[in-house]
Input
Amino acid sequence: MTAIKRYLSGFAGTGIFIATAYFSYNVAQGMYYNYFLWPKEKAEEHYVIPTRWQDLTFLVVFWAISLLLLFLSFRLVRFALKRPTAG
Output
């Protein structure tokens, strides 16, 4: 029974990690374009995209949830790789 739990936690942790890493990469790339690259390119035209409070709220909530999911996947994979105790 413990071996089944360990395999399931390993698969779940790996799946959560891959999905979280993929979505985090896409959001980070969007942040780079929206808040760093495009404002520099538009600076010559004196136009800067205004940042709305909804954008900042989404980013704060997204990164908080992403960090929690990454921690959860770390704990699941750590449990899967832990040596079984005798008993």
